[in-house]
From TrEMBL:
The keyword Signal applies. The keyword Signal applies. Residues 35-251 form the Solute-binding protein family 3/N-terminal domain. Keywords: Signal. Belongs to the bacterial solute-binding protein 3 family. InterPro entries: Solute-binding_3/MltF_N. Transmembrane segments: none annotated. Residues 1-21 form the signal peptide. This is Amino acid ABC transporter substrate-binding protein (PAAT family).
Length: 261
């Protein structure tokens, strides 16, 4: 009995010392709350690890001594909640002048590539915006498509039709109601595989020339005082993951390839 009592005291003392040391060293995990959205396989509530990009964000924060809590919202609300500091940040976004003003912007988390999807029976080739003249291009609401699409729209070289979802654009493409649909190649393939029949998928292909190459980044709100320090720690962890091959390992395991800038 005396031996058990002594053992209990020793365990309590060890826990006390460990907790004190953890407080003094700053190693106690704190939670970073990040808004998220639906963009499989990069982001998604039902994806393993909440998506490939989320998995990289989570791992980098873990290396820096933080836990991550994700909240899933429509894209505009996701950005709003993070900008206002109601959530700590948002994953993952393109940088812009306005976002640099509102957020601490990380180093690139993941690289993505937009291409033109088109019907396989349409003879299509392009190299420069002028080559897109007179095509009907489908766009999805609230997406930023970059300079190529901005140029052809501003110069009125093409006709565009905007709908509320990527699925609707693929339906229109299969039906021949639009000619081209710019979309991230991996996300587009995922949508076709999961939401369309094999017969429908066989009607669609994509052109290898990229419409845009993106570097998606984590945003942390400037309204949250701790975020400057968090971003510094996150970037350091991200650089180490890229250096030691951990990011490449995640991408190959989840996507089968490593998207490059």
């Amino acid at each position: 009995m005396q031996r058990l009592k002594g053992l209990a005291i020793a365990v309590l003392l060890a826990v006390s010392i460990s907790a004190t040391a953890q407080e003094e060293s700053g190693q106690e995990l704190t939670t970073v709350r990040i808004t998220n959205g639906e963009w499989p396989p990069y982001l998604g509530r039902d994806e393993p690890g909440y998506g490939v990009a989320s998995r990289i964000v989570t791992r980098a924060f873990e290396r820096a001594g933080y836990e991550v809590e994700y909240g899933f919202f429509p894209w505009s609300r996701s950005l709003y909640l993070a900008r206002q500091g109601k959530w700590d940040g948002a994953a993952v976004w393109l940088p812009s002048e306005q976002r640099f003003r509102d957020f601490y912007v990380s180093e690139p988390v993941i690289f993505t590539e937009y291409v033109f999807f088109h019907r396989r029976d349409m003879n299509f080739d392009w190299d420069m915006p002028a080559d897109l003249s007179d095509y009907r291009i489908g766009l999805t609401q609230d997406y930023d498509y970059g300079k190529v699409i901005e140029t052809v729209v501003d110069l009125e070289l093409v006709r565009t039709e905007t709908v509320s979802s990527d699925r609707l654009n693929f339906e229109k493409l299969i039906a021949g109601r639009i000619d081209l649909f710019p979309m991230d190649r991996i996300v587009g393939q995922r949508i076709l595989e999961e939401q369309f029949s094999r017969k429908e998928r066989k009607k669609i292909t994509w052109h290898p020339h990229p419409v845009r190459l993106d570097r998606l980044r984590l945003l942390l709100s400037r309204e949250v005082p701790e975020n400057a320090e968090r971003m510094e720690a996150f970037n350091e962890a991200l650089r180490e993951m890229r250096k030691n091959g951990e990011i490449e390992e995640i991408l190959v395991r989840e996507l089968g390839r490593v998207p490059t800038p």
